[in-house]
Amino acid sequence: MLAMHPDCARCGADLPADAPGAFICSLETTFCAECADELDERCPECGGELLDRPTRSGKVLKAHPAAGERRFQS
Questions:
Q1: Helix (H), strand (E) at residue 62
Q2: Which of 22, 36, 47, 64 could form a disulfide with 15 if both were Cys (CB 3.0 to 4.6 A apart)?
Q3: What is the residue-wise DSSP string for 13-30?
Q4: Residue 56 and residue 4: Cα distance in Å, rounded?
Q5: pLDDT tens digits for 15-63?
Q6: Rounded to whole angstroms, how far apart are CA atoms 44 and 64?
């Protein structure tokens, strides 16, 4: 199951699990749309393709909440 990280690993922007606009690589490193565009949709950590992260909402989000640990390192 996706960890659904709450922030962009590059700029720290909030990325709620129930909102579109997040991109992930195969290792689940998460980026906002702006950073994904600036990175030419390639993960700088693994070199993998950045794809749209699916959203999680309603009962599923309540049963399986998003990760709470922020990943952005300033």
A1: helix 58-63
A2: 22
A3: -B--TTSS-EEE-TT--E
A4: 8
A5: 999 999 999 999 999 999 999 999 999 999 999 999 999 999 999 989 9
A6: 28
